[in-house]
Amino acid sequence: MARPTLPSPPAVPAVLRRPRVPGLGSTATRVVAVLVVVALAAGVYAFWPKHGETTLTAQFTRAVGLYPGSDVRILGVAVGKVTMVVPAGDRVDVTFQVDDTVPVPASAEAAIVAPSLVSDRYVQLLPAWTTGPRIADGATIPLDRTAVPVELDRISQSLDDLLVALGPNGANKEGSLSRLLQTSAANLGGQGQNLHDTTHDLSLALQTLSGGRDDFFATVKNLQSFTTLLARNDQQVRDLNANLATVSQQLEGERGDLGSALANLATALTEISTFVQDNRTVLKSDLAQLTRTTSTIVKNRDALAETLEDAPVALSNLQNAYHPETGTLDTRNNTPQLTDPRLLLCGVLSHLPQGGAACTQLFDLLKTLPILGQLPIPGIGLPSAVPSALTTAAPTTSPTAVPAGDALVHVRGADPTLGGLLGGDR
């Protein structure tokens, strides 16, 4: 089959043609291109940011199913590989590397995790780093911060050891286990409902305790605060105990008197109870009256307060007014007109329009009355001018002592003064 004929390329102008260099051809061009590519790759490799690895070692009691190349994970995500598994006496040192872009806390723990019974195992680091210091390169995680899974053969061995210990060559060598089972069966026979109720009640009690755990812990906290307070005041507590001991000794020495007092008190209470029971009606009435009395006192408490405030002054004045020699209360009369009734009458009439003339006529009338001779009046005559007589000072002579020629009359009867109340003689 004839190949198709391709069109020939267009002619290159002479000005664009590059002259050939003798000795150089297409092979030299390829070599230069390869060298340029290699140089670029080397530069990229040299300057490309690299991620290092953090090497750690964890100590385990066992490392079953763990080999170099096993995963190292955080939260189930692979972050590194196990590099060496080296026995070291009673432990196994497992060395692994973790990408340094993944932070690991300085207090990290390590555990060997078995996803299933037959699969490979991996190292789990926990917890995941959030804040705080990071673990240093080359650090070792000790045994107290590592954990290994329980192996199936160890479980089987433990069960075998238990069965041997309980078997005919162990605890049941003399039939002790059989007798225990028989006795337990006999004691528990027919007690299923009781056991169920007991278990149910116990669960309710535990729920109650769980629901009140806040109060319980608060009580414990308050007790702790109380004991701390007692510890801080140890000397005062000791003094209190000593004082209580002294009081107890005194009470112990007077227990006879206390017993007698209590016996008398019991007798008194019995008599009071009997009295109250026998006089219940009278006591009720008395209490009702006492209630009314106290209500009245409450209503007049202001007056009572004033009386109690003024009573001491009044009693003091009364004591100062008492004359012990005469048995009277000495008082001062500020109305001198009462010593002469005529002056009193004229003083009343002087306010009238014709008071002066009326007073003169009254005096003239009084002179004609025979009763004037029996009154303790100092004198009957008046001056010629009534107004001057009204302005004259009243006689200061005592009513009981009158001049000669005038009648002296002593009025007998009850003494209306405070002196008479105190039993004094006039």
TrEMBL record:
Listed GO CC annotations: extracellular region
Mce/MlaD domain sequence ranges: 54-127
Origin superkingdom: Bacteria
Pfam families in alphabetical order: Mce4_CUP1, MlaD
InterPro entries reported in the protein's UniProt record: Mce, Mce/MlaD, Mce_C, MlaD_Phospholipid_Transporter
Domain Mammalian cell entry C-terminal: 133-312
Full protein name: Phospholipid/cholesterol/gamma-HCH transport system substrate-binding protein
